[in-house]
Amino acid sequence: QVHLVESGGGSVQPGGPLRLSCTASGSIATTYIMGWYRQAPGKPRELVAIRTSGGFTNYADSVKGRFSLSRDNAKSTIFLDMASLNADDTAVYYCNLRLWPNYDFNYWGQGTQVTVSS
Prior knowledge:
Blueprint: E1 2-7, E2 10-12, E3 18-26, E4 32-39, E5 46-52, E6 57-59, E7 67-72, E8 77-82, E9 91-99, E10 107-108, E11 112-116
């Protein structure tokens, strides 16, 4: 069983930074894809950034240059460093994990709210 625990959400002013963390526990395969998705009110869930166990990282166009995804393998934790936040970044952010070979199966965290407002 895999469990994902997120932290770091909150309220921030436009232009400000915020860091999200997600720690995975349980039976984690050595080959995986891990990252973040977000869902704003009335909109579908969308990809923010993902990283493979091999180190490949992919970002949504809307966050390129502002968000950075990193990981601490020893702690099975990934971090999403967000900068230059704007109102469009307001959403519930979900940590996501997919394990080889069942990449069609998604593990999700409980979600953490990020609100960008003055």
